[in-house]
Amino acid sequence: MxxxxxxxxxxxxxxxxxxxxxxxxxxxxxxxxxEILYDLAVLNSTVSVNRMAFEKRGIEVMPYLYEKHxxxxxxxxxxxxxxxxxxxxxxxxxxxxxxxxEKEVKDIEDVRKQKNDSIVKSKVSDSLSKQPxxxxxxxxxxK
Length: 143
Fold this sequence. Notes:
single chain
């Protein structure tokens, strides 16, 4: 019984190390794949907010991405499938994307806050400049 358990454990250990998907010949490098998936996330969110603008200009997300990054659909799909078959690699790609998106959201919020603060300051200074000034008359001297 002990031998059977040892054999099953041995098979399980080595079967986990087996690659599920072989590396494609034209694999997109990890950093470029991260850029592509980042652009895809941004474009998809933009399309979901303003689909009509994309339709009016005849912009389709995937053909645009293929042209921008100099890849084709087969290369993208095979590379995406390969990275997805390696969960830790895929997770690191998406962690990088999420961190970059969060940083950009924070930067945008900082700029918006600065603009709002400057608007408030300008309104306060305008309202102060419009207040009537107190007239100071010279005090007559007693002679």
